[in-house]
Amino acid sequence: MKLPTLSGKKPRPESLEAHAFFQGAHGVDLKPGLERVQANFDQEAAKYSHDAVAREKKHETVLERVRAVLPDAEAKADQVNERIGIGKPQAILPALAVASAFFMAAAESAMLAPALDVLHITNPFVQVFAATAIVLVSCWAFHFAWESFTSDQSPRIWRNISRIVAILVAVALTLWGIFRGSQVAFAANLDHNPLGQFLSGHPVLASAFYIFVTLATPIVVAAAMQYGVHHLRDWWEWKTANAKVERLRETRVTAQKQLETEREQHQQVLKQLAYECAQWKASYRIHHERGARHKAVKQPLAIVFLKAALAAILAGLLLFWAPLPCMVGAVLAAGIAAYLYFQRKREHPGAEDYLKSHKVVFAPNAHESIPSGQAPLVLEASVTTRKKRKGLLP
To answer: Rounded CA gap, 34 and 388, in Å?
Structure first.
């Protein structure tokens, strides 16, 4: 901060010690200066408190939001844990079951595709596409039938329809298995393959094998998907619910610690400012008393003439190459300007100049006595101290 000079012209920064000494030397009361120091620290404390409260409000907002959301998250996590049971649900085995179901469905489509020649589907790509559709229809039919026995969320009529469709699909796949066995036996006989004679000689065994291959695969695929998807869904719900609770609890603990830290730091900074304010007031009192007691010594006029002469000589040295009239004019102008400047500083010194020119009372020697009622002045305000305190008065 800046204080105006005695002339009231341009403001410039002044140290605490210089200002106090200047005020004391001119008989200004001590109380206004102390009030200005106190006001400066009050302003600093208010500014820091404003920023600190803003930071504290952020942490309080986080805590309020966590406290509002955490009970619901804990209740949901408890419901999931109660439904699933104690312990972490499995995820690897259900994932393997789902992957195996896709593999089995693909294998069934590959085995079923050649049998579609009887439906006049001869394109291999179209055969695979149609076989995949048949496998998917069968798997979904068995899946919905399974759901009708394990879940009551669907309407009753939907559950009955699912069961009827699954029965019809099972019958159709059974007949398709018998037909596949006869078709393979017929094709093997045309190629004079011994397999044709075996299948023709054991029609029941051949029919049972192809019925199993055709019917069992969609049922196993549906069961594997039912098992895998159900357990993966439980694992995901358990993971997300418990992870959310843990995250909210960690956020609550972190926000609470940060809030306590901000509040403690706020109090510590205010105490530090109060301590520094007391130090500044003590320093202000000391230098105000020194100014009132010792005053300052006015600079001799001879020093002003000496500085003006040095300025004129310097101007002459710099312009020695110029014509003589110009050099003389520059020398006179420099000397007059320097005289006016230093004379003005001599008559109207600033607070810093006033402090530098104060009278010093040296401590007496051991054999000398100190006059009654007069204490020696000890110079303790260093340049570093003045620099630290410079510019902090309003």
So the answer is: 18
| 311 in a structural domain | no
Question: 34 near 285, Cβ under 8 Å?
Answer: yes
* Residue 369: inside a domain: no
Is the torsion defined by CA of 268, 274, 277, 283 positive or negative? negative
d(CA 360, CA 363): 9
Where helices occur in 151-202 by DSSP H, the ranges are: 156-190, 194-201
Residue 216 neighbours by CB under 8 Å, 6+ apart: none
Residue 349: CB atoms within 10 Å: 19
What is the pTM for the complete model shown?
0.55
Q: pLDDT by residue (tens digit) across 211-242?
A: 887 888 888 888 888 888 888 988 998 889 89
Contact 169, 137 (CB under 8 A): yes
Backbone angles phi, psi at 358, to 5 degrees: -75, 155
Q: Within a domain: residue 68?
A: yes
Residue closest to 175 by CA, chosen among 222, 201, 210 = 210
CA dist., res. 296 & res. 355, Å (int): 7
> How many Å is the maximal CA-CA distance in the chain?
144
